[in-house]
Amino acid sequence: MNRHMASSIASTTLLSGLIWWILSDGALESWIIGVPAILLIVGWSLSQQNSFQSLPRFFGLLEFVPYFLWESLRGGIDVARLALAPSTSINPCFISFDLQLPKGPAQRVFINTVSLLPGTLSADLLGEQLIVHRLRGASDGDQDLRECERRVARMYGLTLTDADPGQSSAGALRP
Amino acid sequence: MTLELLSVLLAIAGVVFFFAGALGLLRFPDVYSRLHALTKADNLGLGLIVMAAILQSSSPAQWLKLILIWLMVMLSGAVTCHLVARRARRIDSRVDKTLESNARQEESGA
């Protein structure tokens, strides 16, 4: 058993144990059901092919959470203002966004986060292209989506494979 | 006392966002724009109400449970929203194709 596998088992066990403890109000007898359930979860996650990178890095998560909260606050205020405004001034459109994150948990986190960013909603996934619905027309270069993708990649400790032509930093560091 | 007041203010703000989400659902022109209003405004509204409830409760286990509820609702909201949008798009494109082929048939028939 290698180190990745051990740390993956440990973090999955801790996380599901914490969730069980919260749900059961810490009742001791509830672990009769809780422990087998946790064992099942750990076993299932081990049987998944890419279980090694299924959890984000701890410090990456600490870095991502404030960004996520701030952006979802902005997104909520933005859409509430549009809904409450006397005349709706929205200009909806679809754009297609080339995903640079590899398939897997990081990509799923990104797709779900996009729906909480201001003015964007992930509508469909066609291969490596994410179809995004925008409330305020197309924006040049999709900088908000690129920024979000970079942050998700950093949280998972990934390097983006393909540099955005407008950005020199993201993928250029790869050896 | 100040905590009580802050909690009431947060809950009122939460209700305002839920109201805005419902209003957006009624006012926005198509299914995708309506999903914007539902996911984002309701997520923020629930977050504010969870914070208000946390200020009312004294046990840390209850705080964690409330935060867990918010995370679960947020996750299911984002996933459901993506699935509804995807289904709507695929139905739309099918309808477009049917309309196109109907139009072609009419042209060739005429």
Walk me through this protein's architecture.
The complex is a heterodimer of chains A (175) and B (110). Chain A is built from 5 helices and 3 strands, in the order H-H-H-E-H-E-E-H. With 175 residues, chain A is mainly alpha-helical. In chain A, strands 1-3-2 form a 3-stranded antiparallel β-sheet, with helices on one face. Chain A is globular. The C terminus of chain A is likely disordered. Chain B has 110 residues and is mainly α. In chain B, helix 1 packs antiparallel against helix 2 and helix 2 packs antiparallel against helix 3. Chain B is elongated and about 80 Å long. The model of chain B has no long low-confidence stretch (mean pLDDT 88). Chains A and B meet through helix 1, helix 3, helix 4 and strand 2 of A and helix 1, helix 2 and helix 3 of B.
Write the layout of secondary structure elements.
The complex is a heterodimer of chains A (175) and B (110).
Chain A: H1 3-23, H2 31-47, H3 58-84, E1 93-98, H4 105-114, E2 120-126, E3 129-134, H5 143-155
Chain B: H1 2-27, H2 31-56, H3 60-109
Helix pairs in contact in B: 1-2, 2-3
Q: State the low-pLDDT regions of chain B, or none.
A: none
Q: What is the strand tally of chain A?
A: 3
Number of alpha- plus pi-helical segments of chain B? 3
Structural class of chain A: mainly alpha
Q: Count the strands of chain B?
A: 0
Amount of beta strand of chain A: 5-15%
Distance between the termini of chain A: 29 Å
What is the 3D shape of chain B? elongated
> Uncertain regions of chain A: pLDDT < 50 for 5+ in a row?
164-175
Largest interface: A-B, 35 and 37 residues
Estimate percent helicity of chain A: 40-55%
Summarize the structure.
By secondary structure, chain A is mostly helical. Chain A has five helices and three strands, in the order αααβαββα. In chain A, helix 4 runs antiparallel to helix 5.
